[in-house]
Each structure stands twice: as C-alpha cells, then as structure tokens.
Design a protein that fits this description.
binds fe (iii) ion, single chain, 9-stranded mixed β-sheet, alpha/beta, binds adenosine monophosphate, 9 strands, binds zinc ion, globular
C-alpha cells in the first residue's frame, strides 16, 4: 500500500481543511498521510481527530524554507508534536517574518498599481501561515489575474518585480532543531535546488553529515526515471527515499493527493524507514 508524506491544508496555503485532506487520503486507501503545512503545526489537532475516524495514520509534519550556502532548500520535518519544543518555538518567529514580508510585498504591489490591502490578503487565508499564494488569491479576487499561479510568472516568483525575501533558518539549524524536537528531516523536491546531479549529491552529503534523514525521491513533478535515480542516490548515501504529492487542493488544480499527476506511488517503506531514524 501507499502513503503520502507531503500535503498542505488550509492551515497554510492548501485550500482543503485539515480534516478534509485526511478524509480524501483515507478515501483512496492510503495507509498514512503526513500533513506538512508551511511553518505551522496548527492543522495537526483537527487532522488527528479526523484520522481517528479512518484506518489511516496521521504523521505530524511541517515544511520549512531554509538557506544552505547560496541555495534555498525546502525541508520537510516529521514527527514534530504540536507542542512547545526547540523547532516548534521557532515556527512562530518564522510566521512573524512572513507577516513583515507580506506587508512589504503588498506595498510593492501597490507601487506597481495593484490596489490590494493586507486585509484582502488575510481574507484569503484560513490558517496562521500566510504567504505569497494568499497574496496571489487577493490579486485574483481584485480581478488582476485569473489564477493563483499567474502571480508566480513574474510578480511574486523569486526575483519577481514584487518579490521580497523573508527570514529563514539555515538547513543545518533546521536539521539540528528538528532532531532536538524528536523529529527527522527530508529535503523536499530536490530538483528545485539544482538540476546538476553532482551539485545535488554534494549538498545531500553535507546535510546527511549534519543529520539529514532523507530526500524526497518520489515527487509528483519527478519523472519515473528521476524518482528511480534519486532513490538510488539515497540508498547510496545512506538516506531514506521519501515521497509525497505536494497536494494543495485547488491551489494546484488537478494535482491529486497520493497519486500526484496520476502516476505517483510512495511506498509504505518510506515511512517505516523514516520512523527508524527518529532520535
Ligand atoms: P511562500 O511560502 O509565501 O514563500 O510561498 C511559496 C509557496 O507558493 C510555495 O510553497 C507554493 O505553495 C506556492 N507557489 C510557488 N510557485 C507557485 C506557482 N507557480 N503556482 C502556484 N503556487 C505556487
Ligand atoms: Zn505551498
Ligand atoms: Fe516546497
Ligand atoms: Fe510543499
């Protein structure tokens, strides 16, 4: 059977409430689901209550955006309880950093002639991790664009005309804090870091030596060949090959929980191997 270890809910920038995400995952027969909202664990209690109604295991997780040397990496952290803890306590600071950044992005957009307000942005968000997707949704509501993704073509994409940096942890700190919190980490969608195999391998090795547990080999956007290659690299480096869909509900239209674009299968072994790495 299969699992999905990378899913977003309306606690961050997905459009389905946490309980609906769990019901959908159970409905297609997944044995486990990791809810990995950006910078927040606030969806976990509701997701856990929902999971108790179905034969599915709910893994508590989070997705972080971190710096490593001159690259940005998305890092998934698993088995973090929604309680105070070393990494958990930093999440609140990261969300405060988002607020500062969102205000600056809105100012830039206003200068560029898009008359949206922070109230418009906050109205798009159901949870406590507000970001660029919600700003994009406010632009949709204002009639400036048709869909969330259009805002990422130029305006809000990295280096785009309204782009603003935000505070991030370093990869090394995130790995250490996750470990101190009883969790384990995996690098999300590694191909967004670099397309160069040697560069990626050296980043994986550096971070493995810092305590990284896995890399996301089975990812929606990866071809079958890339999934196999990354799983082989993981095995070679003593890392776990993890995987997930990066489901966002209507935020990524047609991308399905569990199966991604239709051909994704994340083996149960990915979760069992991750579990073995818990500190
Ligand atoms: P933020 O967390 O505020 O930095 O926003 C980054 C998030 O925006 C990513 O995690 C994605 O969920 C979303 N995103 C990035 N690119 C796109 C895109 N082209 N279309 C829709 N959503 C996107
Ligand atoms: Zn997202
Ligand atoms: Fe990501
Ligand atoms: Fe994600």
């Amino acid at each position: 059977m299969a699992v999905d270890l990378h899913v977003h809910s309306s606690a961050s920038d997905g459009t389905d409430a946490p309980d609906l995400v769990v019901a959908k995952a159970a409905g297609i027969g997944l044995t486990a689901l990791a809810l990995t909202d950006h910078d927040t664990l606030s969806g976990i209690p509701a997701a856990r209550r929902a999971a108790a109604q179905f034969p599915i295991e709910l893994i508590s997780g989070v997705e972080l955006s971190v710096d490593h040397a001159d690259v940005k990496i998305h890092m998934l952290a698993y088995f973090l309880e929604p309680n105070p803890g070393p990494l958990q306590n930093r999440l609140e600071e990261l969300r405060t950093g988002r607020t500062t950044r969102n205000r600056r992005i809105v100012e830039r957009l206003n200068e560029l002639g898009y008359p949206i307000t922070m109230e418009d942005v906050l109205r798009q968000a159901a949870g406590d991790a507000v970001g660029r997707p919600h700003i994009a949704d406010a632009l949709v509501e204002a009639g400036a664009i048709e869909h969330r993704s259009e805002a990422f073509v130029d305006l809000l994409s990295d280096g785009g005309s309204a782009y603003v940096e935000r505070d991030r942890l370093t990869a090394i700190d995130a790995i250490r804090l996750a470990g101190e919190s009883g969790g384990v980490t995996s690098i999300a969608h590694p191909l967004t870091i670099s397309a160069d195999a040697a560069t990626l391998r050296s980043i994986f090795e550096d971070l493995r030596d810092a305590g990284l547990a896995g890399i996301e080999a089975y990812y929606s956007e990866h071809t079958p060949a890339i999934r196999t290659q990354l799983a082989n690299v993981a095995a070679d480096l003593g890392l776990v090959a993890t995987g997930g869909s990066d489901y966002h509900g209507l935020g990524k239209p047609d991308l399905q929980i569990g199966s991604g674009w239709g051909d994704l299968i994340v083996p149960d072994a990915a979760l069992e191997e991750l579990r073995q790495r818990r500190p």
